[in-house]
Design goal:
The strands form 3 sheets. Strands 3-4-5-6 form a 4-stranded antiparallel sheet, with no helix packed on it. A 4-stranded antiparallel sheet has the order 7-8-9-10, with no helix packed on it. The chain has one domain. The protein is built from no helices and 10 strands. By secondary structure, it is mostly beta strands.
Length: about 110
């Protein structure tokens, strides 16, 4: 995953195939598997890979303008989303918003 938002599926043994360029002229900054699904962090939102398509996930201040810098999870209990302004926690059903004090107006 990376340049032009190109998404590859597969492994080293069986080989890889491209699902396509989902974000031409842009990059996928972070990728994380969570609860059996693949999430993509981009500079224009959080996406989930559904088959051979991507779908933007939104909730309050998490939208198509949110710069998702990093995704992390240590279990299937929570996906942590770090943006350029705030943080979010996703449990697979709902998002919890964590406002950064320096960015209250954003």
């Amino acid at each position: 995953m990376g340049e032009d938002g190109t998404v590859l599926t597969g492994n080293a043994r069986a080989g890889f195939r491209s699902l396509g360029e989902f974000f031409p002229g842009d990059y996928i900054w972070s990728v994380r598997s969570f609860q059996g699904r693949t999430y993509l962090g981009t500079l224009h939102g959080l996406y989930v890979l559904e088959g051979s398509r991507v779908r933007l996930l939104t909730s309050g201040k998490l939208d198509g303008k949110t710069q998702v810098i990093s995704l992390d999870s240590v279990s299937d209990n929570a996906l942590w989303i770090a943006s350029n302004r705030h943080a979010f926690r996703y449990d697979g059903n709902a998002f919890t918003f964590y406002e950064h004090g320096d960015n209250v107006a954003y």
